[in-house]
Specification:
By secondary structure, this protein is α/β, with parallel strands linked by helices. It has 15 helices and 12 strands. The protein binds guanosine-5'-triphosphate and magnesium ion (MG).
Length: 453
């Protein structure tokens, strides 16, 4: 059915141990050729041995080797794992011997793809493998692990099984009216209403999922010389962005990440926004800042607290005041304050923080506010609810299909018509779990993996 594949599973470079994985039907013959002297191969036992080139008998390295007998392996096939000295030279020489024996180099994620195809894990678990590998925060790690253990899969399968039962009963009662009882429409509609409200809840909390996996995107904006770069440096605790008293110091974007309470926050320092400019570079920069404001989760608007608001401040405010998460930083609090923010209209959860980026006053208050608004709310969240972008898109369609069903029912649709919506929802759910997934979707998912996983 499948050919035999091999890959280096550990990162390139010099290290303690490097692992080469081989999976597929030729594993038994391969192990005999690389280790001709070894007669016993107890599955899952570690043997210390020499790896040799089959024809010449030249020794390439010595190390540990483990044989996993399918289906009791990661891929569900026979697997050989060589734990060698992690020298690029050693690894490459062993890999080329394997390729010389007719083994193919694995595609990215191909081991995990085989695990899915062979029923060792479902698609949500496979995706959590890659998410775990890429996790950048303790929350990302926690979510990926929960999904790896199947928490999302269980939730989705339960929903799918429930819909499936109704669909089968409807279709059965139409095809075999004497044998299969008609579906209890009232109970079915009640159950589906509950499903829709559960899905809506799940979709509502997905912003958190985005923050867990990708971090919180924050942009620092303000007119020139108010202290945006100073703020970035203060947050980072190092001089990353150039600070001078000359307005217009920052021209391009500078970005940097910090971890706050286990969540990754990305900050982008931007060029100061001023309206009266004919400078082409500056104008282009302004357009990019507007795009950044739109795409960011958080806007930090810096104003100079030591002077009244300027026309340019008001122009910037026009662009950001509708953002759901806005932090107004009244900077230079070490100087006499002349700014008045009391007449500005903000959305209700806008925060105003007085700070001196130069003297690092108010920095802890800002970090605390970010921690409160993002991290603490994450802590109260059920991690098994978190989905990735692909899963969210599919679940949104499932909810829409079920809503359509409810609307049809309200219009007096016959069972047959309802079962079409049920079928659509079931198919979409199967796309999440991998029960109904196209080759194209699978390839898209596994192309994000690294070779050797
Ligand atoms: N007194 C005082 N001065 C500050 C503070 N923060 C920044 N400054 C000064 O303000 C000037 C401008 O600071 P930057 O951080 O470069 O300001 P910016 O907003 O990045 O400026 P552009 O990149 O030109 O848009 C520098 O001289 C800083 O030392 C502060 O909290 N208090
Ligand atoms: Mg700057």
């Amino acid at each position: 059915m499948f050919d035999t594949i091999a890959a280096i599973a550990t990162p390139p470079g010099i290290g303690g141990v490097g692992i080469i994985r081989v999976s597929g039907p030729d594993v038994m013959s391969i192990r005999g050729q690389l280790f001709p002297a070894r007669k016993t191969w107890q599955p899952r036992y570690v043997y210390y041995d020499r790896v040799i080139v089959p024809e010449s008998g030249v020794v390439l390295d010595e190390g540990c080797v483990v044989y996993f007998q399918g289906p009791h392996s990661y891929t569900g096939e026979d697997v050989l794992e060589l734990q060698l000295h992690a020298s690029p030279q050693v690894m490459q020489s062993v890999l080329s011997v394997l390729l010389g024996l007719g083994i193919r180099l694995a595609d990215p994620g191909e081991f995990t793809k085989r695990a899915v195809v062979n029923g060792k894990m479902d698609l949500t678990q496979a995706e959590s493998v890659i998410e775990l590998i890429h996790s950048k925060s303790v929350y990302a790690q926690r979510v990926s692990l929960a999904h790896l253990r199947g928490s999302l899969f269980k939730r989705i399968s339960l929903l799918r099984a429930g819909l499936m039962r109704y669909m089968e009963q409807i279709e059965g009662s139409i095809d075999f009216p004497d044998e299969v009882e008609a579906v209890d429409r009232v109970a079915m509609i009640e159950a589906i209403e509950k499903n829709v409200s559960d899905l809506s809840h799940l979709l509502r909390v997905q912003d958190f999922g985005k923050w867990i996996q990708g971090g919180v995107q924050c942009v620092i904006v303000g007119r020139p010389n108010v202290g945006k770069s100073s703020l970035l440096n203060a947050l980072l605790g190092e001089s990353r962005s150039i600070v001078t008293s000359i307005p217009g110091t920052t021209r391009d974007f500078i970005d940097a990440q910090i971890l706050l309470g286990g969540v990754m926050f990305s900050f982008v320092d931007t060029a100061g926004v001023r309206s009266e400019t004919t400078d082409v570079i500056e104008l282009l920069g302004m357009r990019r800042i507007r795009a950044l404001i739109r795409s960011s989760d958080v806007v930090l608007w810096v104003v100079d607290g030591s002077v009244p608001l300027q026309p340019d401040d008001y122009r910037i405010l026009e662009q950001i005041k509708r953002k759901a998460r806005l932090y107004v930083i009244a900077n230079k609090s070490d100087k006499r304050q002349r700014v008045d923010l009391s007449n500005l209209e903000f959305k209700k959860n806008t925060r105003i923080v007085a700070m001196s980026a130069k003297k690092q006053h108010g920095l802890e208050a800002l970090k605390e506010a970010l921690r409160h608004d993002f991290v603490e709310r994450l802590e109260r969240l059920d991690v098994s609810l978190m989905c990735n972008v692909r899963q969210v898109a599919a679940l949104r369609l499932v909810r829409d299909q079920l809503k359509h069903l409810l609307a049809q029912y309200a219009l007096g649709a016959v069972d047959d018509a309802l079962s079409i919506d049920l079928k659509g929802a079931i198919l979409k759910l199967g796309e999440v779990t991998g029960d109904d997934v196209t080759e194209e979707v699978l390839d898209g998912i596994f192309s994000r993996f690294c070779v050797g996983k």
